[in-house]
Amino acid sequence: MPFESVRQVANADFPTRWGHFRIYGFEGIIDHPESCNSEIAAPLKRVESAVALVMGDVHSEPPIVRIHSQCLTGDVFHSLRCDCRQQLELALATIADKGAGILLYEQQEGRGIGLMAKLRAYELQDRGRDTIEANLELGFKADCRQFELPAEMLKLLGVKAVRLMTNNPEKVEALVEAGIDVVERISADVPSEPTFEKYLQVKREKMGHLVG
Ligand SMILES: Nc1nc2c(ncn2[C@@H]2O[C@H](COP(=O)(O)OP(=O)(O)OP(=O)(O)O)[C@@H](O)[C@H]2O)c(=O)[nH]1
Ligand SMILES: [Zn+2]
């Protein structure tokens, strides 16, 4: 277990356009993290933090849970290079509709390669590479994320079983491996746009995501 001492650091009121949540901050230390880039050594320890938006009763039955990976370009600027913003809205709207659920927002920008590297990957994609080829050309793995922190956050929130909104089988596997029961997978499909059709195709054909 590479994560040490995950702890809650904040818990506050959080009104949004979708409804009223509580916002929680969590942080933990990863001991000896793996390097994601063959040319960059990893530090001995790394602090990671993530946020949970919690609405309603999440303990009487397995709540809807979304693990959303940070995408500044999509989440903040509504980029149409990817489907992230639409998925974020879908998750918040679905939770609000049900009146209960949890959005875990983890800060592994660009599938964990970081914002500047993601922008450099965009440059390579503009020259014809797909998302995976671009990551590899920059020395990174195709996907550098791990989902132990969200799993630990669920445990600290007292949630042992979830209905997980995702198309990514790795998220399901990661939670199950960490001891969280995934009783149902809810699709995270959003309407496709011509600007991210290829992005979705690569997720489906090369990353094994259950898109569409
Ligand atoms: N490296 C890289 N990351 C990207 C790119 N476009 C979006 N991302 C990141 O991809 C992450 C979202 O991952 P996705 O593969 O779209 O979806 P997922 O979270 O694995 O799966 P779902 O739960 O089904 O949404 C976010 O961290 C984005 O910042 C890109 O071109 N290159
Ligand atoms: Zn995105």
Automatic annotation (TrEMBL):
GTP binds at R66, I67, H68, S69, Q70, Q87, E109, G110, R111, T131, T166, K171. Coiled coil: none annotated. The keyword Membrane does not apply. The active site is at D143 (proton acceptor), R145 (nucleophile). The gene is ribA. Signal peptide: none annotated. Residues 8-186 form the GTP cyclohydrolase II domain. One of its GO terms (biological process) is riboflavin biosynthetic process. Its EC number is 3.5.4.25. It comes from the Bacteria. One of its GO terms (cellular component) is cytosol. GO terms for molecular function: GTP binding; GTP cyclohydrolase II activity; zinc ion binding. The keyword ATP-binding does not apply. This is GTP cyclohydrolase-2. InterPro entries: GTP_cyclohydro_II, RibA, RibA-like_sf.
